[in-house]
Design a protein that fits this description.
Elements: E1 5-10, E2 23-28, E3 33-38, H1 41-47, H2 50-61, E4 75-78, E5 94-99, E6 106-111, H3 115-122, E7 126-130, E8 137-142, E9 147-152, H4 160-172, E10 181-185, E11 198-204, E12 209-215, H5 220-226, E13 229-235, H6 249-266, H7 273-276, H8 281-287, H9 309-315, E14 335-339, E15 351-354, H10 358-363, H11 373-386, H12 390-405, H13 424-436, H14 440-444, H15 448-459, H16 463-469, E16 472-473, E17 476-477, H17 487-495, H18 508-513, H19 520-540, H20 554-558
Parallel strand pairs: 2-7, 8-13
Antiparallel strand pairs: 1-9, 2-3, 4-5, 4-7, 5-6, 8-9, 10-11, 10-13, 11-12, 14-15, 16-17
Helix pairs in contact: 1-2, 2-19, 11-13, 17-19
This protein binds iron/sulfur cluster.
Length: about 575
């Protein structure tokens, strides 16, 4: 494809020193300015990287009153000093921040795929995007040649499963390696609604498809499209085991080997991340009355057997290397191959669907009373390719369905859609409407907080009732756990700056399944130290899901189920964390 080069910047290629390039990349797609900014020792000492660098850049880039759709709102993507390490699992993460269209405050997402490591190895510790392009553009970083370009992008499809694949092919070139390219994109729904996400790709060599991992929460896709960005593309071909220049590679490799062995020995019995991914949580949450069902009304139902992880295991292609970055032996990124959607624009076409993860299975399954795993997979596929966040979609549709059950909505108000519990066709149609920018789907796609206001104003609904059933805080939809059963989990939701997401403290398992923190004091203490080390993951460029964080060998063990109580050989965290002592000591 012939593209116009709208702006170009050349930079010196130089090796990374101990995890840092000591420069960030600034791109303004409005005035076409591209430049590098230095990273000071102060930035490294105080903000480390990842989410810390993102927030530092945003602090200097936006004003007190910047709105999500102002040109000066930024999308920052930072990678952290450990990002790109290949010696042990969970080290290929990008952290995305922006001012959220849902909440009006900064939101952050932790996402896999190859973009983060490649952009870092291309020469930058973070990427800062600002401005609004008049016409759609692609921002391209060529990490082999040291060139950054803003390119015209008038013709491509927007939906991610097509766009990512096309751009992998185009930028790898005819004889190039598609694995050396990564793409960030969203989908058509991001032009029309707020509950959107960004998709970060990696090329799956065995499946021969671009796989998509999501920076899911807070409407990042909507900001991306508001800026007129169709995609970010990075190319980097020089990956080696020491590209990140670790200070002590032999120790790193020795530690990595130990972790791989622990995963091999324990994962099949404990977390089953390698076999099923996070979907293994479905039956555990149902057993312990923690699975959100019918808009968080119930925590357990016999029907949830239909969404047992064995159903997803049967759909996932096993035996594939399913890691979202090299070196991850957990390889939890499950996929359904040759899935043929029964609705929508890709009806009947075989596609590869990434997931479902637990939150997708719960949000787009049990929480809206859909019990057929194939319906969940179809919603998962369309959410991803349209750029919709599966968590906010599930919670928003659940809210609309409960409003329908209570007579606040009816067919006249939904444009003819029957939003009875479990109506998968209606849920899918809402999703297609979000992509087309029409119908009641666009209303649902504004999220729960805006629906509440609208239903009070337009339909005279009781605001107190809507406040009771509308599962959002700060404007962000709740993620998929029955937090009312767990004071510690609810505390974790409250601590997260962006709204009710469990990034900073995922305590429901310790609290309700393992009963490790039975007293009020235990819960308070956990809420003190968990956010410290989970934030640390996000600063370093590591995954922050406990089951997947073998960077901290204690974490998989925290997820031991009661039937394996004696597999927990590691002693409990023996050193309290503090800003002066941010390291976990274990014996
Ligand atoms: S554990 Fe899963 S999410 Fe984490 S790096 Fe491995 S494959 Fe990616």
């Amino acid at each position: 494809m012939q593209r116009k080069v709208l702006a170009e910047y050349r930079y010196d290629l130089k090796p990374i020193v101990r995890g840092y390039n000591k420069r960030t990349l600034y791109v303004n797609v409005g005035d076409k300015q591209i430049k590098e900014k230095p990273v000071s020792d102060m930035m490294i000492d105080k903000f480390v990287g990842g989410k810390g660098f993102d927030l530092y850049l945003m602090w200097h880039g936006v004003k007190d009153n910047t709105k999500w759709n102002d040109p000066e709102n930024e999308i920052c993507i930072s990678f952290g000093p450990l990002c790109g390490n290949t010696s042990y699992p969970g080290s290929g993460k990008s952290i995305v921040t922006t001012i959220s269209p849902l909440t009006g405050i900064p939101v952050d997402c932790n996402v896999g795929g190859h973009f983060g490591p490649y952009a870092k190895f291309a020469g930058f510790d973070a990427l800062e995007l600002q401005g609004k392009a008049e016409e759609d553009v692609i921002v391209y970083i060529d990490g082999d040649k040291g060139i950054v370009q803003i390119l015209s992008a008038p013709d491509e499809a927007i939906n991610s499963h097509i766009l990512a694949e096309e751009l992998h092919q185009e930028f790898a070139g005819e004889k190039g390696n598609l694995q050396h390219v990564s793409v960030v994109s969203t989908g058509e729904a991001a032009n029309n609604v707020l509950i959107t996400c960004l998709n970060f790709s990696f090329w799956d060599k065995r499946r021969k498809v671009a796989r998509l991992k999501q920076a899911g929460r807070g409407g990042t896709g909507t900001v991306f499209r508001d800026k007129g960005i169709k995609a970010l593309v990075v190319k980097y071909s020089g990956l080696k085991v020491d590209t990140n220049d670790p200070v002590d590679l032999p120790t790193l490799q020795k530690t990595g080997l130990k972790l791989h062995k622990e995963i091999e020995a324990g994962d099949d019995d404990q977390c089953r991340m390698h076999q099923v991914g996070t979907a293994h949580l479905m039956e555990i949450m149902n057993d312990y009355d923690l699975l959100p069902i019918r808009n968080f009304k119930y925590g357990q139902m016999p029907e949830a057997e239909g969404l047992h992880s064995r159903e997803f295991t049967a759909l996932f292609t096993q035996g594939m290397a399913d890691g979202c970055w090299y070196g991850c032996s957990l390889s939890c990124c499950k996929a359904v191959d040759n899935f043929k959607p029964r609705t929508g624009p890709y009806k009947g076409q075989p596609v590869c669907v990434d997931g479902p993860e637990y939150e997708t299975a719960a949000g787009c399954g049990s929480n809206i009373a859909i019990w057929n795993p194939k319906d969940v997979v179809e919603i998962n596929f369309y959410c991803d390719t349209y750029g919709v966040d599966t968590i906010s979609f599930g919670t928003s549709v659940a809210f609309a369905m409960e409003c329908y059950e209570n007579g606040i909505l009816n067919k006249e108000r939904t444009g003819g859609l029957d939003l009875s519990w479990g109506n998968a066709d209606a849920a899918l149609e809402l999703l297609h409407q979000m992509a087309r920018g029409e119908g009641f789907g666009v209303t649902v796609g504004q999220g729960v907080r805006r629906m509440k206001k609208l239903f009070v104003e337009q339909y005279g609904a009781d605001p107190k009732f809507l406040q009771d059933i509308g599962m959002e805080a700060k404007g962000l939809e709740y993620s998929q756990y029955m937090s009312k059963e767990s004071l510690a989990q609810q505390g974790g939701y409250t601590l997260a700056l962006k709204g009710p997401q469990h990034d900073e403290a995922w305590l429901i398992f310790m609290d309700m399944v393992n009963n490790h923190i039975p007293t009020f004091k235990d819960k308070a203490e956990a809420l003190h130290y968990f956010p410290m080390f989970r934030t640390w993951f996000g600063l370093q460029g590591c995954v922050n899901c406990p089951g997947t964080t073998s960077n901290q060998p204690i974490m998989p063990r925290l997820m031991n189920r009661p039937k394996f109580p004696n597999t927990c050989k590691t002693t409990w965290i023996s050193t309290k964390l503090s800003p002066e002592n941010p390291w976990i000591s274990m014996n």
